[in-house]
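Sample entry (213 residues):
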Amino acid sequence: MGNYHQHLIFGYLVALVTGVIGYFLLGFDLIYCIIACMLGTFAAILPDLDHDQSTPLKEVFNVAAAIVPFVIITAMMERGFTDMVYLTAIFGGAYLFIRIIAIFMFKRLTTHRGMFHSVPALIIVGQIIYLMYFGNDFKVRLFLAIAGALGFLSHLVLDEVSSVDFTGGKVSKNKFFGTALDFHSKSMFATGFTYVLMLGFFCLIFMKHAGLI
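Predicted structure, serialized as tokens:
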């Protein structure tokens, strides 16, 4: 399988091509193409979150611990909640939850080359990006979601290619072949949970377009 730097470089190249196509062929503003490139590059390292000692795991949870609490208290302040004592407590609680509890649970619930290396996980990444975009332009929302999904896909494809040895005039496959571009894992719980999560996000997308949320 590819290492961290190979995935990062390949993911960046795929994301760059996506951004160029978006700008020159699809007519999106440059800022959205830059964001698409960033999302695609970031998504290219996400599948390795299921490796307990991976660099992406540490980086993503560090970033989440810094950003998520800020987003939470910002949303609360916009709704009129201004008590700084409670806001500080919530900020600290959210930070500690992500840095200690969330990362511990994630490590316990995931296995390397499990459902995080799968097509359903790819779809979920696209769904999350789609839902997180706050603008009203459907085309931009879809473009960014696809850019993220393509970045994630670049990781899976590189893993599959790296699982095949073409040297010596023979084609041989290692034990990891077929485990990246897959639709299930050995764990029925992990597989079921992933599909329930994907279905839940589809419901949220439908509710958003129906004006229910």
